[in-house]
Design goal:
By secondary structure, the chain is an alpha/beta fold. It has ten helices and seven strands. Helix content is about 45%, strand content about 20%.
Length: about 250
């Protein structure tokens, strides 16, 4: 059997898991490719692969059997962390789903996160609402030890690793939006994203400003929604500019 091949996104997730983990819980495991890679590369001794859907779990079962890993990967039909016991895993992986759904799964699984026996590390790859995930992490006595932003097939993704323990200082709004770790380490993928976002925000802000300006000159009413949209985009641009200040003198940016 050939070595398992993962997407760039899932490779980043796997590489966030601490080597020599005694057990990893792969939540929303889908076809178990991440679980198989964790065993194949000797990152984890054991994996509990869980999914709420029986169809993907059956495919996962066939894949695990094809790699002869039935004794190392246990498959469970589970809604999130419901069927994971406290202290059973030293790392929890959740990837490839919306941030709000991920937050709901973590909230419902607080018995695992708050375990007196052992609180697991979290490796999270939210597809959206990353700011809310960073807030959740801080509010539940975890702190982010690493982040990685990547570009995979034209899309930007962020992978977060958090461990038990509180942050030394609270995140500000810019750090919640873009990630303190990536900003402080001047991540090159984030830099490219910020420059692209800067152009898009400035173009949109210019259009909205023209609409508001025309309304003031002609006396024509504009919707409250348009005014709110302009104010929102202005705040987004301000945060973008603040984030880009981390990159001063890089590539001549001032």
């Amino acid at each position: 059997m050939k070595d398992i091949v993962l997407s760039k996104r899932m490779e980043t997730v796997v590489n966030m898991v601490s080597p020599r983990s005694f057990a990893v819980a792969d939540i929303g495991c889908d076809h178990a490719y991440v679980s198989i890679a964790l065993i194949e590369r000797k990152i984890a001794e054991r994996v509990v692969a869980m999914d709420v859907r029986s169809g993907p779990l059956e495919i996962a079962r066939k894949n695990v059997a094809a790699y002869d890993m039935e004794e190392r990967i246990e498959l469970r039909l589970s809604d999130g962390l419901d069927r994971l016991s406290e202290g059973e895993a030293d790392s929890v992986v959740i990837a490839g789903m919306g941030g709000l759904l991920m937050q709901s799964i973590l909230e419902k699984g607080k018995k695992v996160l708050d375990s007196k026996e052992k609180r697991p590390a979290l490796i999270l790859q939210p597809q959206s609402d990353i700011r809310e995930i960073r807030i959740f992490i801080q509010e539940h006595a975890y702190h982010i030890v690493r982040e990685k932003m990547l570009l995979d097939e034209g899309k930007y993704y962020t992978v977060i690793k958090a461990e038990p323990g509180t942050e030394k200082r609270k995140y500000d709004e810019v750090e919640l939006q873009y990630g303190r770790y990536n900003l402080e380490h001047r991540d090159d993928i984030l830099y490219g994203y910020l420059k692209k976002e800067k152009n898009a925000l400035e173009s949109l802000l210019m259009k909205l400003t023209d609409i508001v300006g025309d309304s003031q000159r002609t006396g024509k009413m504009i919707s409250e929604r348009t005014v709110k949209r302009k104010n929102f985009v202005w705040k987004e641009r301000e945060m973008n500019q603040e984030a880009l200040r981390y990159y001063v003198n890089l590539e001549g940016y001032i």
